[in-house]
Amino acid sequence: MSNFYPWQSGTAAFLALGLTAGAIAPFVTGASALAQTTRFSDVSSSYWAEDFITELAQRDIISGFPDGTFRPDAPVTRAQFAAMLRKANQSFNKANQRGATNFVDVPSRYWAYSAIQDAYKTGFLTGYPGNVFRPEQNIPREQALVSLANGLNYAANSTNVLSYYNDASSISSWARTPIAAATEERLVVNYPNVKSLNPQRNASRAEVAAFIYQALVSENQAQVVSSQYVADPTPVVQNFTIPAGTTIPVKYIREKILIAQEDEQLPLTLTVDANITTSDNKVLIPAGSEVVGTLRSTNGGAQFIAEKLVMNGKQMNIDASSEVITTTETISQGSNTGTLLKNAALGTAAAAAISAVTGDRAIATEELLIGAGSGVALSLIQRFLGRNSVDLIVIQPDTDLDLKLDNNLVISAN
């Protein structure tokens, strides 16, 4: 239902004349001149800038047209922008920074003369060489943002923030520092792609409304409105839950691991073999992250129990485990140890068992051991002496040790 109020005939004629002559666009009007609607027929509740437009209309900083429209995609002239700034400054309360000036193309009887003078004196707008203002020129997006940043005395910590935009190279050199400051203050609103600034494009009425409203928010003169189009290079940390039952593929530096069936508890570090991502491809656990845990003999098999996840230089607890691996290989006297041990890692007890059965003591001292090391392996040989064979558990880590989360894993990510 429209809340647009009937226009008085004199007012409507006055505005119609102004629009025809190009002297007045009802972008900003005097508070007592007419009653303005804050709902517009061409600004639906789902329109990307609806909140910004409605809020500024309620504050009488912007207004619509006699037909009840706002024309959000129409451009904004420099004179119209000055008139908006004059109204917004009732909230900004910015004092004059310099004296008045006489622009050669803004006569004293021009409709926006006072607004342009105010915007100039408060530091929001300036002219072009030759004391020209160009009041009827459409204002580019970068110029509108620079105006607000300069007028509100915002200073950038660094222009590095401009790398957030995929078209940062299109920003004029004179505008880079003020736009960096505007970005840091969250004045920049980019629709439909929040990372595309389009600095040279003429600002639309909706975009200017969004910029000014964000400036009011920055000055603590308005409440934050939720919008996905407000440029914010500061990463926001979010918590994501990877549900129990999720599989995490892993790999190891050796092709196989041999461990004894009895009492092996071996510290082991595996590497995550593929990115773990959300449905929209946000990486939660990057490939190459490490999983620290223990490889244990259990009930005639072996299982890896994960304890810590190390990624991006940080460590967190993880509750995950592999399936129980029960594949075995029999080592007997005369076994070809060269083939057996090719690209293998040995548990401490497994190395002792192989040495005892085959008689090759070098195995317990020279092969890659996981666990207590060669000294303990040599001391364990006595346990296996006299056996003609021994069964060892054979683990193919790139397939056998893939982990399954036993409980939900909460990951904080930007």
> Which strand order does the major sheet show?
2-15-10-9-8-5-3
Q: Describe the sheet with the most strands.
A: 7 strands, antiparallel
Give start-end ranges of low-pLDDT stretches: 1-36
Shape: rod-shaped
Range of strand content: 15-25%
Rg over alpha carbons: 36 Å
| Strand/helix succession | HHHHHHHEEEEEEEEEEEHEHHEHEHEE
The overall pLDDT average reads 86
The class by helix and strand makeup works out as alpha+beta
The protein's oligomeric status is single chain
Helicity level, as a percent range? 25-40%
Features:
414 residues, alpha+beta, five-stranded mixed beta sheet, seven-stranded antiparallel beta sheet
Topology:
Layout: H1 9-21, H2 50-58, H3 78-92, H4 113-121, H5 141-151, H6 176-184, H7 205-218, E1 238-242, E2 247-248, E3 250-251, E4 256-260, E5 265-272, E6 276-277, E7 283-285, E8 290-298, E9 301-311, E10 314-321, E11 328-332, H8 337-340, E12 344-347, H9 348-358, H10 363-366, E13 369-370, H11 374-384, E14 389-395, H12 397-400, E15 403-405, E16 409-413
Parallel strand pairs: 4-12, 12-13
Antiparallel strand pairs: 1-16, 2-15, 3-5, 4-14, 5-8, 6-7, 8-9, 9-10, 10-15, 11-14
Structural summary, described in words:
The longest helix is centred in the N-terminal third of the chain and has 15 residues, at 78-92. This protein has helices at 9-21, 50-58, 78-92, 113-121, 141-151, 176-184, 205-218, 337-340, 348-358, 363-366, 374-384, 397-400; strands at 238-242, 247-248, 250-251, 256-260, 265-272, 276-277, 283-285, 290-298, 301-311, 314-321, 328-332, 344-347, 369-370, 389-395, 403-405, 409-413. It is rod-shaped and about 115 Å long. A hairpin with a 5-residue loop joins strand 6 and strand 7 (283-285). It has 414 residues and is α+β, with helices and mostly antiparallel strands.
